[in-house]
Design a protein that fits this description.
Blueprint (H helix, E strand, L loop, with lengths): L3 H30 L8 H26 L8 E3 L4 H8 L5 E5 L4 E3 H16 L6 E8 L2 E8 L9 H5 L13 H12 L3 E7 L2 E7 L2
Parallel strand pairs: 2-4
Antiparallel strand pairs: 1-3, 4-5, 5-7, 6-7
Helix pairs in contact: 1-2, 2-3, 2-4, 4-6
Length: 207
């Protein structure tokens, strides 16, 4: 089990990694726009600057809720409270998001767990498909149901769900499933998975 300081360090590393590509591209575009020898490419760099600025803004707003203190704690909230941030995040992924949680209330840590699981599965489906987010009110629980070709679930995914740390130590790229499972645990939820061809579901229920 990771300590609080280890969790904080790994989470900070992940947030920096997730924002790094967009911010690095923004910096490169600005440098290129300042370069008079590349004047013929300025229209392209301006479009890239707009695109990467939008992506960075979307990620920052999403991560503020999914990993920050703005949504921390187990006070009940409407599960649609972060709908705008989640839907905007999926404009950066290949699969389509199907939203089926309107009117459902649940603990904030449960919503944060769901946001991180949606992020994980959005990245795991580079060939597209659908990610359906649904929930039940009594007892509270939710499902992230993924359907599409070549869903890539990394080998460390299941051990992270069990809140296990690798013998060689936890690294930032292995951390995300662990973090989502820790949030689910804090919300009083247990995570299970269902797998079939071109299908991967994550189910969060009260134990």
């Amino acid at each position: 089990m990771l300590t609080g300081t280890q969790m904080a360090a790994l989470l900070a590393s992940k947030v920096c990694h997730d924002l790094g590509n967009s911010i690095g591209s923004i910096t490169n575009c600005i440098d290129s726009l300042d370069d008079a020898t590349q004047a013929d490419q300025h229209a392209l760099y301006q479009e890239m600057l707009r695109s990467n600025s939008r992506a960075a803004w979307i990620k920052m707003r999403f991560l503020r809720l999914a990993t920050g203190s703005a949504m921390m704690g187990n006070v009940d909230c409407d599960m649609s409270e972060a709908r705008t941030e989640i839907e905007d995040m999926f404009t950066l992924f290949q699969p389509e998001l199907v939203w089926r949680v309107d009117g459902i209330r649940g603990p904030r840590d449960g919503l944060r767990a769901a946001m991180n699981l949606l992020y994980i599965m959005g990245e795991a489906m580079p060939r597209g498909g659908t990610v359906t987010f649904s929930a039940t009110a009594s007892p509270f629980g939710f499902t992230v149901a993924c359907e599409g070709p070549r869903i890539f679930v990394k080998p460390h995914f299941h051990s992270g769900f069990r809140l296990e740390t690798p013998a060689e130590g936890m690294e930032s790229h292995l951390f995300h499933p662990y973090y989502a499972a820790a949030l689910a645990r804090d919300a009083g939820l247990a995570l299970t998975t269902r797998e079939a061809e071109n299908r991967f579901d994550i189910v969060a229920t009260r134990p």
